[in-house]
Amino acid sequence: MKKIVIFDTTLRDGEQVPGCKLNTKEKVELALHLEKLGVDVIEAGFPISSPGDFASVEEISKAVKDAVICGLSRAVKKDIEVAAQALKYAKRPRIHTGIGTSDYHIKGKFNSTQDDILERAVQCVKWARNFTDNVEFYAEDAGRTHNEYLARVIEKVIAAGATTVNIPDTTGYCLPHQYGEKIAYLVNNVPNIDKAVISCHCHNDLGLATANSIAGIINGAGQIECTINGLGERAGNTSLEEVVMIIKQHKDLGFTTGVQAEMLNPLSRIVSDTMRMPVQPNKAIVGSNAFSHSSGIHQDGFLKDAQTYEIINPADVGADSSKIVLTARSGRSALAYRFQKLGFAFDRNDVDTLYEQFLAVADSKKEVTDEDLETMAKQYSAKEKVIA
Ligand code: KIV
Ligand code: ZN
Fold first, then answer.
1. Closest of 138, 136, 289, 143 to residue 209, by C-alpha
2. Alpha-carbon dihedral of residues 111, 117, 121, 122, nearest 10 degrees?
3. Smallest Cα–Cα separation from 256: which of 283, 211, 279, 222?
4. 281 part of a folded domain
5. Which among 17, 138, 205 is the best mutation to test ligand 1's pocket, defined by most ligand atoms within 8 Å of the CB?
6. Contact 383/357 with Cβ under 8 angstroms?
């Protein structure tokens, strides 16, 4: 099994979400949770961006014992120096520096040339190496960068001392096979690629961030950059819980991670509360409906054998046990199950009679509750007694 390095950027790319701003105390607490979760690298912030972010990276560096602490910088000497200063207490510091390599960045953002950007990329890595031997280079918008030029940049930055090379699909544009081919192209065309770990950093603008990251590791990448609940710029980043569970459920892929899966749901809730960012109910692994069954066909199959409709045991990801939700789409077996859970032992005929009443209630509201069921059951039992 190949161990995939899990690089968490909840506190940097995740915190860039409008309204998610965290103070230093909150960031340190989350960093300690992330370390317990078992992530390998914590991107703690962008130290030159504000005094608050500098302080957060510094305090996280003091508090965290095992995980690598990473600080972001642009390909600017001052940025790199400030990142190094913020990381000075880190037991295992990493500087993450880089520059845009697509034509959109080279021409539109920098009004520059490929050769000039290549030179700036090499210089920033060399400068960062003066402060630590753990340097990650990012080729921003690598997703839309010509593979040939990208390969040249990657070869030169590895020669300059980069130990991880990040290939961001910054705009979430790539299709999984394209992103996978990009990684394979680098594996096959960068002569010194074995000297560095290739990292996937995918955004979710087309809902493909997780699929692209998985395509990346299948094609030779060794690190995935991700966030809890998939938080991040615009439509977000690759969601940590999704990649961890894909790797866990598909052992055939031959990958493993150091993440404690049973902490995924509790930590998802902590991050959601701290960042004041609700999780969509249908979110994979951590959404409130991720283990709920509401249609009759599914409920019947689930009650016979949970694996018919569930590929993950909720306990394995720290979620509450599966829920049988009663709606107008539910069937008799679900109704009988819920009555039984409330302590009412009705036979088949009883359930048939009660089912008609249940449908009338279910059609009038979104979900039938335990209270509704109790009322129904008591009225039915009283009537039965009178008849008897
Ligand atoms: O999306 C991106 O390209 C980034 C880089 C700064 C790594 O977040
Ligand atoms: Zn990003």
1. 143
2. -140
3. 222
4. no
5. 138
6. no
The answer on 296 and 208 residing in a single domain is no
Both 309 and 258 in one domain: the answer is no
Give distance in angstroms: CA of 170 to centre of ligand 1. 6
Domain assignment present for 364:
yes
168 and 300 share one domain:
no
Please indicate whether residue 15, judged by its CB atom, sits closer than 6 Å to ligand 1.
no
Q: Please name the residue whose Cα sits nearest to atom 5 of ligand 1.
A: 140
Question: The CATH number of the domain where 236 resides is what?
Answer: 3.20.20.70
Report d(CA 359, CA 328) in Å as an integer.
6
Cα(220) to centroid(ligand 2), Å: 20
pLDDT by residue (tens digit) across 180-238?
Answer: 999 999 999 999 999 999 999 999 999 999 999 999 999 999 999 999 999 999 999 99
Do residues 94 and 68 touch, judged by C-beta distance below 8 A?
Answer: yes
Last residue of a domain, one of 239, 274, 309: 274
**What is the number of other CB atoms lying within 10 angstroms of the CB of residue 367?**
12
Q: Final residue of a domain: which of 225, 244, 274?
A: 274
In short, whether 13's Cβ falls inside 6 Å of ligand 1 is: yes
Residue 222 to residue 148: CA distance in whole angstroms: 21
b/e sequence 114-142, b meaning 16+ C-beta within 10 Å? beebbebbbebbebbbebbebbbbbbbbb
The domain in which residue 90 lies consists of 2-274
**DSSP class of 263:** G
Query: Is residue 300 domain-shared with residue 346, that is, in the same domain?
Result: yes
DSSP 304-315: H-GGGT-SS-GG
CB 93 within 8 A of CB 45: no
Contact between 188 and 154 under an 8 Å Cβ cutoff? The reply is no
With 0.90 as the threshold, say if the pTM is over it. yes
List, for residues 137-184, the tens digit of each pLDDT value: 999 999 999 999 999 999 999 999 999 999 999 999 999 999 999 999
286 assigned to some structural domain: no
